[in-house]
């Protein structure tokens, strides 16, 4: 009764011809089988080995995606959606071959509803492109995973990032989706109403489903007002524990910080080298505040007191837009900065999220385990949500390092689960965390998920080999 | 292939005996078949006719609920969950008979995690009881539908209410659930982590599923800090349109009001009569602000300016806790106040939610249609979310009034759907809105919902006759 099987139909010359027939005279540019393009589409930004699809289709509309999926359904050929390729758990790898549908040309901003603070976009729009489009509206799209991902990919992996502590993740920011199901049917999952009690929450079901239940082709997402006053600051701490305790105190006071990011000593060193900055190489918080003027001043004063109490040095301000931009660029490039510390190494991000009261012990435990690893690691995290990463710089050609990385990753995850946390805060399951999914949810929940998968994708053609072992 | 069928097993003497056997010597008080108790359990606070279950079971643990469900599954007997009976679309009516499981004795607060700002409770805890329990923690549970509903019922109907504009609905406030599935298996849907990208979002699937996919027996919900400074105010307006435009302006500025409620002239008159208050009988906004002191002062000043611009009279303050309490008590009793205007009449609440830019036209349209109705109506709403009700005071014994109420309800819903809104902002589908569910979502989405229903409840025993026509 498994929905996952390897008994798929072949992508042979006849199938490619049928695909090409869908696109008529555009077939040459829209259906591509060159090895370079196929390999690029089977690989994301993670350490996971690539698996090239048999062909890549560049779709330009929901109808085209539906037509391709119908063809694949008839022939029982796997379908994998591809946006920007910035996923971190091998989500785009075509482990059973099949067709990769590239959605990056579906990049239209369909409707900006300024009064309602929402926007309707095609799935291939990237978050940077969307925010450029919105720059004169006084509104912005708040979910920011760092990478310039597509919104479709962000929804599919339930992405979040630095702003989630204030604005929520994709879970909270998607109002409605258009999804092509495994049958090729097109479903609209919601309306533009801010809330609804009408029926099963299909929107939230597809958000985070990693392409295994359908392909997201259009999204309606919430926007937020750009705060009138924005302030950012950097605070180095004497010890990790002090920084984390300060974060806990801030969260408990209900202070609506826009961002509160932790970076450890080595991560700060990496950033300084990579971004040519001169931050203190100490455990550090990067903070952002936004709102009406007096509110921001009050928040800053309160957070400053809290940091003082926990051994923070004085705030270093980034008040003007340019220095704020530099600050967050440096933060966003933390992963590349880390990789530059050990050229040739692969970065395993790791990704757990725990109740905030357990954060200090989970980070300390991770650092203890990491001290025994044969490669450099660091800690960086969206700590306001209890979410942190332990990037590991692993020589992928060295089997003992790879084995040690697997062990360390598992230690970090097991500790998070024991602390009533989750095995993934924002990167998803993909190829990398299928065993942990079971450990986290237990057999009955996984059976329920599998039953839903079978109900919506009985032939198992949607991104097979992911999510469930 | 329908999951809904009337081919259910009988609740006969043998079945009752088997039920009683589960409870041993407590069977007398835990399995009840008296007509009075059965009738009470088949009826909610709505206009929908009651349908008594064949027996009522008072459960005290998840294991007991699971045992009852397993028995029902084996005999193919319907199961309906019952909390406080405060639903508004007939959700508890046992339209195909079967067993009502009363969860009100499952009222334990299992664990308060103050540092993490969450709490684990049994499903029968009411929101007032929970907030009493939390009163010395500086935290509160924010979702407030007015009625003293159980948290299990609130999750099952995706409830919200006056605070949702700032704190979200049950969708945003439930972190994890324990659910008894139709098989009698017990699923835990999540952890205490604030966010997760691990697997399908079962939590959000069960929130709002109205007992049709499983029975919620335990919840982990978010708490929020009680703001240090709270201010509440009443602002009468010359016209409905001015009040609504003021709300739109406040929302667009991103001002985090805690509550922003609209009540029309007749609703204000009803409240004055019922609650012995002396508010102006004009279109009115009830407002609440909360936060740090300077932030609240700044918000108040900004909102005051906005109200002035849109024809609002000056703020009437309710600054001390007692007068704030009186104000919100009056608001919460609006439905009873309405009913008292026409003794003997039933109140049909109606319930739609639209994008805020369409709110003024939707309310004006509803009022126009309502002017032709042979019964009194009023408008009251959580307008910050675009959610409003048009309570209709209908003589249930007068067929022409009942027909007119149906027509008016349909007009309000169709207008909301045409405005890209939803047929239910917070009351759910139940018996009353099955046709509108289809109109809102379309055939493919309803087919997907039905497929999920069949996957998780193949025999169709969970609250049959609801949600899907």
Walk me through the structure.
2 copies of one chain form a homodimer. Chain A has 469 residues and is an alpha+beta fold. Among the domains of chain A are: 109-225, 2-Layer Sandwich (Uridine Diphospho-n-acetylenolpyruvylglucosamine Reductase, domain 3); 229-336, Alpha-Beta Plaits (2-Layer Sandwich); 342-432, Alpha-Beta Plaits (2-Layer Sandwich). Chain A has 18 helices and 20 strands. Chain A has helices at 13-23, 27-30, 35-41, 62-75, 127-133, 151-156, 164-167, 170-173, 202-206, 240-252, 265-275, 293-309, 321-332, 334-341, 359-371, 399-418, 434-441, 443-456; strands at residues 31-32, 55-58, 79-82, 99-102, 109-113, 118-122, 139-140, 174-181, 186-188, 214-222, 224-225, 229-236, 259-263, 284-291, 316-318, 346-348, 352-353, 380-382, 387-389, 392-394. Chain A has a 7-stranded antiparallel β-sheet with strand order 15-12-14-13-18-19-17. In chain A, strands 5-6-10-8-9 form a 5-stranded antiparallel β-sheet. A 4-stranded mixed β-sheet of chain A has the order 1-2-4-3, sandwiched between helices. In chain A, strand 5 (109-113) and strand 6 (118-122) form a beta hairpin. In chain A, helix 1 (13-23) runs antiparallel to helix 4 (62-75). The radius of gyration of chain A is 22 Å and the shape is globular. The model of chain A has no long low-confidence stretch (mean pLDDT 95). The interface between A and B is large, with 98 and 98 residues.
Task: Describe the secondary-structure layout.
2 copies of one chain form a homodimer.
Chain A: H1 13-23, H2 27-30, E1 31-32, H3 35-41, E2 55-58, H4 62-75, E3 79-82, E4 99-102, E5 109-113, E6 118-122, H5 127-133, E7 139-140, H6 151-156, H7 164-167, H8 170-173, E8 174-181, E9 186-188, H9 202-206, E10 214-222, E11 224-225, E12 229-236, H10 240-252, E13 259-263, H11 265-275, E14 284-291, H12 293-309, E15 316-318, H13 321-332, H14 334-341, E16 346-348, E17 352-353, H15 359-371, E18 380-382, E19 387-389, E20 392-394, H16 399-418, H17 434-441, H18 443-456
Parallel strand pairs in A: 2-4, 3-4
Antiparallel strand pairs in A: 1-2, 5-6, 6-10, 7-11, 8-9, 8-10, 12-14, 12-15, 13-14, 13-18, 16-20, 17-19, 18-19
Helix pairs in contact in A: 1-4, 10-12, 11-14, 15-16, 17-18
């Amino acid at each position: 009764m498994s929905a996952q099987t390897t008994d798929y139909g072949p992508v042979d010359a006849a199938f490619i011809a049928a695909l090409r027939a869908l696109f008529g005279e555009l077939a040459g540019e829209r259906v591509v089988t060159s090895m370079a393009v196929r390999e690029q589409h089977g690989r994301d930004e993670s350490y996971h080995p690539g698996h090239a699809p048999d062909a890549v289709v560049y779709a330009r509309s929901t109808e085209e995606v539906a037509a391709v999926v119908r063809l694949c359904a008839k022939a029982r050929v796997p379908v994998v959606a591809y946006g920007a390729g910035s996923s971190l758990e091998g989500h785009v790898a075509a482990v059973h071959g099949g067709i990769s549908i590239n959605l990056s040309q579906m990049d239209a901003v369909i409707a900006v509803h300024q009064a309602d603070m929402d926007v309707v976009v095609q799935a291939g729009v990237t978050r940077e492109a969307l925010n450029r489009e919105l720059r004169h509206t006084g509104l912005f799209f708040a979910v920011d995973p760092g990478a310039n991902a597509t919104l479709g990919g962000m929804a599919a992996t339930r992405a979040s990032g630095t702003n989630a502590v204030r604005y929520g993740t994709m879970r909270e920011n998607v109002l409605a989706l258009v999804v092509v199901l495994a049958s090729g049917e097109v479903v609209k999952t919601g309306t533009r109403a801010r809330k609804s009690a009408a029926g099963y929450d299909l929107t939230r079901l597809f958000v985070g489903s990693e392409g295994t239940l359908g392909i997201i082709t259009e999204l309606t997402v919430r926007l937020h007002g750009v705060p009138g006053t924005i302030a950012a600051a950097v605070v180095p701490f004497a010890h990790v524990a002090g920084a984390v305790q300060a974060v806990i105190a801030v969260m408990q006071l209900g202070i609506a910080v826009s961002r509160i990011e932790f970076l450890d000593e080595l991560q700060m060193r990496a950033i300084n080298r990579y971004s040519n900055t001169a931050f203190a190489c100490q455990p550090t918080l990067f903070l952002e505040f936004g709102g009406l003027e007096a509110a921001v001043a009050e928040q800053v004063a309160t957070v400053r007191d809290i940091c003082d109490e926990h051994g923070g040095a004085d705030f270093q301000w980034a008040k003007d837009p340019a220095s704020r931009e530099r600050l967050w660029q440096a933060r966003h490039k933390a992963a590349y900065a880390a990789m530059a510390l050990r050229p040739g190494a692969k970065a395993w991000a790791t990704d757990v999220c725990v109740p905030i009261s357990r954060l200090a012990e989970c980070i300390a435990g991770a650092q203890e385990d990491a001290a025994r690893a044969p490669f450099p690691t660091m800690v960086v995290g969206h700590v306001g949500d209890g979410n942190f990463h332990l990037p590991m710089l692993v020589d992928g050609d060295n089997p003992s390092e790879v084995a040690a990385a697997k062990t360390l990753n598992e230690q970090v995850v097991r500790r998070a689960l024991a602390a009533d946390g989750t095995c993934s805060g924002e990167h998803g399951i993909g190829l990398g965390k299928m065993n942990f999914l079971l450990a986290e949810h237990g057999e009955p929940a996984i059976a329920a998920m599998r039953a839903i998968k079978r109900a919506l994708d009985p032939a198992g053609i949607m991104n097979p080999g992911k999510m469930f072992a």
